[in-house]
Amino acid sequence: MSDLPKYRDVSVHKPDVPADTPRSEASSSRSDANLVTVMGFDKNDVLFRSDKVGTVQWRDSDGKIVGLLVRLRPDIWGFSHRGDEDWEANLKIYGNPDCP
Question: How many angstroms separate the CA atoms of 69 and 38, rounded?
């Protein structure tokens, strides 16, 4: 039997919004769908912005991956960190050891 996580279908209901509904200020070009923004300590200090992000990983002071944030579907993200029961399986699937 494999230790890898099982695929689960997770559906999220999105309310119907009429096409003529005006966009709010929050949904400006900086708030496009699926956009991931990485910021420094200042909210105006944008370090990275992309709508193509699939996995975010961060490392400890020894360079080992300690956490993963994974886009499972356009509006669904999963989080895993060292110490989770399925950490090794998730690391094999989503971790990238070549990233510095």
Answer: 13
- If asked whether residues 44 and 58 sit together in one domain, one would say no
Provide the pLDDT for residue 53.
92
Domain count, the chain: 2
The answer to whether 63 touches 77, Cβ cutoff 8 Å, is no
Q: Residue 58 pairs with which residues in a beta bridge?
A: 67
Splitting the chain (100 residues) into consecutive groups of 10 residues, what average pLDDT does each group show? Answer: 50 49 42 85 89 92 93 92 93 78
Give the span between the Cα atoms of 59 and 44, in whole angstroms.
24
Q: Specify the pLDDT at position 16.
A: 53
**Measured CA distances, 99 to 55, 58, 90 (Å):** 12, 10, 16
Residues 40 and 58 in one domain: no
